[in-house]
Design a protein that fits this description.
This protein is about 50% helix and about 20% strand. The protein has about 525 residues and is an alpha+beta fold. Strands 8, 9, 10, 11, 12, 13 and 14 form a 7-stranded mixed beta sheet that branches. The protein starts with 8 loop residues before the first strand and ends with a strand.
Length: about 525
């Protein structure tokens, strides 16, 4: 009797566990060398020859063509980390991979997977307590937020800019969207533009969109602008069905042309008389309407995307209008300045300021596509962690200090746990050592010696991390050097890595259909 298809492949027991664990470890290992301020970059080349150079864990894992289902779970760890807190993706993936490695050793010692899972979950609870104990008592002010941003960007591609100078821009951007009940992180966008040094990166209090004026004769800049956002086609209306009209004389032709001209001019006059200085519409604008509005000094942008229209509404307080007859002055948004600027082959519209402005844009410049892409990733991560730190008000030491503290507390608590589960709890602590060990290896230090020194310093001072400053590597208190991470980044890394590792370790049967 056949229960499964004859083409199905089935792997069971220790073979299935070994295969899954090996796949998960391989994926984690692929990003391990990117960890920390001295982390290395990866060059990813797809089948079409497109090249991505980055040390961002989430980007690397997503660009890799991973098919193994267990390995894909490690990618999901990075995705979850990126979505929840925006940074720490490499840390989460590396911890998950090392948890699997420790689990493999325990399985070979005949420790049941269920026991390992129970021990890992208990250890993760202890780890979360240890993170809370490491939270700084210092108020999370702008200076602390700058240190959080700088720590996030150190070691990542920032072009000719230092992480310190970019950190100021990042904090200013997040402060701009701070609300009474939290941080509107989605109101901060990053717009990249090739063609200048990264030193030209700036903060725009508003939005930047890829659009050009509907007519060359329109003004390039409007100060103190009243703007309208329309979902209206400013041109001759066409029927929904195909129709043919028979014209028998010149008079009939002239009448038809006059009627069309009258309709077009009517649209233009309605817009001009409304008092709007600038018009954004998601539909097309007839050339004759554009020409007339240009002569009236009205700046018009046509065919803008729906998301851009929403951003303009958010940034200026405008109301989208679906019919020209409904356009009123109360629907207008306000902006301090709207301008159309040219950057090589690209035309951009800047919508800046305004009493109701809620959106801010980090306008990123760079000499090449690779530079601006990496800058965009670095700034995006920094914006996320600063928003996270500001929202929670909790920060912990970076540079591997928190992982050292977590492992130390887990080993202390493990002494009170009975049975084989104690082995799993201790294995969890050993797995966390991968973070400081990798940081040490990436700086050129011997990872074992560095780990011993870190533990010794932690035991004597209560807080010790591997600080990289220029060419020097020092073991000291990360808080004294401004190496700081949001506590929620560490919590999410522990939780997501534990969840993935335990899920993979519990699989003892893989059935694959051909």
């Amino acid at each position: 009797m056949f229960i499964m298809s004859e083409d199905s492949q089935r792997t069971q027991g220790r073979d299935a566990q070994s295969s899954n664990i090996m796949a998960g470890k391989a994926v984690a290992e692929s990003v391990r060398t990117t960890l920390g301020p001295r982390g290395m970059d990866k060059m990813l080349v797809d089948s079409s020859g497109e090249v991505v150079i980055t040390n961002d864990g989430a980007t690397i894992l997503n660009e890799m063509d991973i098919e193994h289902p267990a390995a894909q779970m490690i990618v999901e760890v990075a995705d979850s980390q990126e979505e929840e807190v925006g940074d720490g993706t490499t840390t989460a993936a590396v911890i998950a991979g090392n948890l699997l490695g420790e689990a493999e050793d325990l399985i070979e010692q005949d420790v049941h997977a269920t026991t390992i899972v129970e021990g890992y979950h208990e250890a993760s609870e202890i780890a979360l307590e240890a993170i809370s104990e490491q939270v700084s008592e210092e108020v999370v002010d702008d200076e602390v937020l700058k240190q959080v941003a700088e720590s996030s960007m150190t070691g990542k591609g920032t072009g000719g800019l230092t992480a310190e100078s970019l950190a100021e821009t990042v904090v200013e951007a997040i402060r701009h969207v701070e609300l009474e009940d939290g941080v509107a992180r989605d109101n901060v966008t990053v717009h990249t533009q090739i063609g200048a040094s990264s030193n030209a990166t700036e903060l725009v209090p508003g939005i930047v969109i890829d659009e050009e004026p509907a007519h060359d004769g329109m003004p390039g800049e409007v100060e103190d602008a009243s703007l309208a956002v329309l979902d209206v086609e400013l041109g001759v209306r066409t029927g929904e069905i195909d129709a043919e009209y028979s014209i028998d004389s010149i008079d009939q032709l002239n009448t038809a042309i006059d009627a069309e001209e009258s309709e077009v001019r009517g649209y233009a006059e309605t817009v001009a008389e409304s008092g709007a200085d600038v018009v954004f519409t998601t539909e097309d604008v007839d050339d004759r309407v554009a020409s007339y509005l240009a002569s009236e000094g009205v700046l018009v942008f046509e065919g803008i995307g729906d998301s851009d229209a929403k951003d303009i509404v958010s940034a200026t307080g405008a109301t989208r209008v679906g019919a020209l007859d409904d356009l009123e002055e109360t629907d207008f948004g306000q902006a301090d300045r709207i301008s159309a600027e040219n950057y090589g082959d690209d035309d951009l519209a800047f919508v800046e300021g305004g009493a109701a402005a809620e959106t801010v844009t980090v306008f990123v410049r760079g000499g090449t596509e690779h530079v601006v892409d990496e800058l965009e990733r670095a700034i995006g991560d920094a914006l996320d962690v600063v928003a996270t730190a500001l929202a929670s008000g909790e920060v912990v030491p970076g540079a591997g200090a928190t992982e050292i503290a977590i492992a130390d507390k887990i080993r202390e608590e493990a002494a009170g746990i009975e049975g084989r589960k104690q082995l799993a709890v201790n294995a969890f602590a050993d797995a966390l050592d991968i973070v400081p060990r990798t940081l040490a290896a990436n700086t050129g230090r011997d990872p074992i010696d560095a780990l011993v020194d870190l533990r010794s310093a932690h035991d004597s001072t209560g807080r010790a991390g591997l600080i990289t400053s220029g060419e020097e590597v020092t073991i000291d208190d990360p808080f004294d050097y401004g190496v700081i991470d949001p506590a929620d980044v560490k919590r999410e890394a522990i939780e997501s890595a534990t969840e993935a590792a335990t899920m993979i370790a519990r699989i003892d049967d893989v059935i694959a259909a051909e």
